Amino acid sequence: MNIRGHAALVTGGASGLGEATARELARLGAKVAVLDVNLELAQQVAADIGGIALKCDITSAESATAAVAQAAEAHGPARILMNIAGIGTAKRVVQKDGNPAPLEDFARVVNVNLVGAYNMSRLFAAACARLDPLEDNERGVMLFTASVAAFDGRVGQQAYSASKGGLVGMTLPMARDLAQHGIRVCTIAPGLFATPLMKQLPEPVQASLAASIPFPSRLGKPEEFAQLACHIVTNSHLNGEVIRLDGALRMAPR
To answer: Which of 53, 81, 100, 211 gets the highest tally of CB atoms within 10 A of its CB?
Structure first.
């Protein structure tokens, strides 16, 4: 599908991988709605790229429904959905004090990363399925953002790995489900990227993490994620696929 002229929704679009993807979509001619819980940052990105910013809590049916409707009012119904919003945590199952990890921490990560992505996808798909088909009878494309932690999560990453593994597991059945509507579904599983969260770590830690990547031995650039995300949109035979973007990284247990 040609990106130019089509409306796109980017969750988590105010920073990191989401911001890079919003910028690349806009560069390629999309009408971009930047969705994020941080409206101030989203507005800054939207102003730079000529898009719109909308406050959106992806875990809320009401908030997500309102954001999708507002984006459609401004740009027309979206044909592109980039599910990039997410959170992470690291908690051992048995804490240092001997107590079990708090259940609410696990539930919160799964609710944002997995349930939130499904929430946005169901709303996008229902609206997109009503649009006129394009070339190859295609109506739209959606992307999930998983992680290499879905496959080789580290100690303490139970919640994060479970949530990202859920996205991996949802990719193929979602693609099969939406094939009748001409909507493609793919997932990117990024490795270690130079996001704002990563940059909060001390320089020696960042350098050590970068050195663990076989080649190139550096942190991934957010624009590299964005380039792959946009290629998935334009390559109409990519469907139901999970693509690792990690420089051949396989994470150690610790």
So the answer is: 81
Task: Give tens-digit pLDDT for 137-159.
Answer: 999 999 999 999 999 999 999 99
Q: What is the mean pLDDT of residues 75-97?
A: 94
- Mean pLDDT within 66-84: 98
The pLDDT assigned to 84 comes to: 98
Give SS3 for 123.
Answer: helix
From the candidates 106, 124, 144, 160, which is the catalytic residue?
160
Measure CA 55 to chain center: 16
| Residues 6 or more apart whose Cβ sits within 8 Å of residue 120 | 9, 11, 58, 64, 68, 81, 83
Please say if 118 is a catalytic residue: no
Domains in the chain with CATH codes: 7-244 (3.40.50.720)
Phi first, then psi: what are they for 80, rounded to 5°? Answer: -130, 130
